[in-house]
C-alpha cells in the first residue's frame, strides 16, 4: 500500500501540516482537505470544503486512504449550551459522513485520529492499553469514543478498513493551549506550585504522531487495528517543567506545594477537575504499534522538547 494517494482532512491544522510534509517527503501523493482561507503545506494538492457537511466522494477522488484529522477539539471553557451535541455533530456524524464519502470514492482504508480521552482522563495504576474499556471523561471524549464504535461498525458493514490511532497530549512547534501556557509561565519566571507533583504523563511529539499515522495508512498489518502512539517516555509533571526550563534557558521555578493542598485549593476555587488532571497520572502503553508495525518514535522526548523550545524562543524574538 505504498505510493498511492492519501487524502488528509484537517490538513491545515497543527498535526495535519506536519503529516502532509512527512508523506510528501516519503514520495506519497497527498490531497489536503481544508476549509477556505486556511494555509496548508506549500506544493500540496488542496481541496477546499466549508465543513464536513459538504464532503462528497469527489473530495476523496483517486485516494486509496483517508486520514481523518478534522474534528471539534477539546476546549477548557466550552461556550456551547449543549457541548455534547456539538461534539457529536462534528466528531461522530461528521466522521461517519467522511467515511461514507471515502468508501464511495473507492478508498480502501480510513485512519481515524481519535484521542486517549476516548478511554479515560487518568490511568488506573498502570498504562492504558488499546483493549481497556472506554470510559470517556467529558463530552469531547464521549464523542471520540462513539465515533470509534460507529466507524468500526461502518467498516464491518462496508469492508472499509478502519484504523484508529489514539495519541495523548501532542506537542511540538506551533503547539497551543496548556502546553504553550506552561512554556510562557516558565519563560517569564512565574513560580509553579508543581514541585511535589510526581504524577507521570505520556506525551507525543507531533512528528512522531505524523510518522505513526503515515505507517498506519500504508502498512498491511494496520488494517482493523487500534493503536496508542507516544514518545515512549512518561515524565512527571515536575520533570517536564524542568526539562522545558533547561531548553528555554530559564530554570523552572517549582514550588513544592503538597498535592493534598493543591486539591483542597481546587475544591475551594471550583477547579477540582483541573487539579485532578494536573496531579493524576495518565500513562499510555504504546507497545502494540511497536509490536505489530515495528514502529519506533523517530524523535526522543528530550529532542522533541528541545525543538519545541527553539520554536517558542524564535517566536518570542520575532514578536519583540
UniProtKB/TrEMBL annotation:
Top-level lineage group: Bacteria
UniProt xrefs under Pfam families: Epimerase
NAD-dependent epimerase/dehydratase domain span: 6-223
PANTHER family found in the cross-reference section: BIFUNCTIONAL POLYMYXIN RESISTANCE PROTEIN ARNA, BLL5923 PROTEIN
Name under which the protein is recorded: NAD-dependent epimerase/dehydratase
Organism: Caballeronia humi
Amino acid at each position: 500500500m505504498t505510493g498511492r494517494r492519501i487524502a488528509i482532512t484537517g490538513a491545515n491544522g497543527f498535526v495535519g501540516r506536519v503529516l502532509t510534509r512527512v508523506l510528501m517527503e516519503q514520495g506519497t501523493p497527498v490531497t489536503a482537505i481544508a476549509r477556505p482561507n486556511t494555509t496548508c503545506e506549500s506544493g500540496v494538492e488542496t481541496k477546499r470544503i466549508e465543513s464536513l457537511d459538504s464532503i462528497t466522494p469527489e473530495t476523496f477522488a483517486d485516494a486509496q486512504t483517508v486520514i481523518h484529522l478534522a474534528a471539534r477539539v477539546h476546549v477548557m471553557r466550552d461556550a456551547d449550551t449543549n457541548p455534547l451535541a456539538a461534539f457529536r455533530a462534528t466528531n461522530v456524524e461528521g466522521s461517519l459522513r467522511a467515511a461514507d464519502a471515502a468508501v464511495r470514492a473507492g478508498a480502501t482504508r480510513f485512519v481515524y485520529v481519535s484521542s486517549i480521552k476516548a478511554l479515560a482522563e487518568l490511568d488506573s495504576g498502570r498504562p492504558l492499553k488499546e483493549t481497556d474499556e472506554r470510559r470517556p471523561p467529558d463530552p469531547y471524549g464521549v464523542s471520540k469514543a462513539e465515533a470509534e464504535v460507529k466507524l468500526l461498525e461502518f467498516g464491518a458493514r462496508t469492508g472499509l478498513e478502519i484504523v484508529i490511532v489514539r495519541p495523548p497530549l501532542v506537542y511540538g512547534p506551533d503547539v497551543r493551549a496548556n502546553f504553550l501556557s506552561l512554556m510562557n509561565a516558565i519563560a517569564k519566571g512565574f513560580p509553579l506550585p508543581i514541585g511535589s507533583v510526581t504524577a507521570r504523563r505520556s506525551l507525543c511529539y507531533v512528528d512522531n504522531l505524523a510518522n505513526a499515522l503515515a505507517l498506519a495508512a500504508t502498512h498491511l498489518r494496520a488494517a482493523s487495528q487500534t493503536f496508542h502512539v507516544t514518545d515512549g517516555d512518561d515524565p512527571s509533571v515536575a520533570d517536564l517543567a524542568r526539562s522545558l526550563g533547561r531548553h528555554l534557558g530559564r530554570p523552572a521555578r517549582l514550588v513544592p506545594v503538597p498535592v493534598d493542598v493543591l486539591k483542597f485549593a481546587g475544591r475551594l476555587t471550583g477547579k477540582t477537575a483541573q487539579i485532578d488532571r494536573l496531579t493524576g497520572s495518565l500513562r499510555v502503553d504504546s507497545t502494540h504499534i511497536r509490536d505489530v508495525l515495528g514502529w519506533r518514535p523517530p524523535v526522543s522526548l528530550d529532542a522533541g522538547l528541545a525543538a519545541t523550545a527553539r520554536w517558542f524562543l524564535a517566536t518570542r524574538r520575532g514578536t519583540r
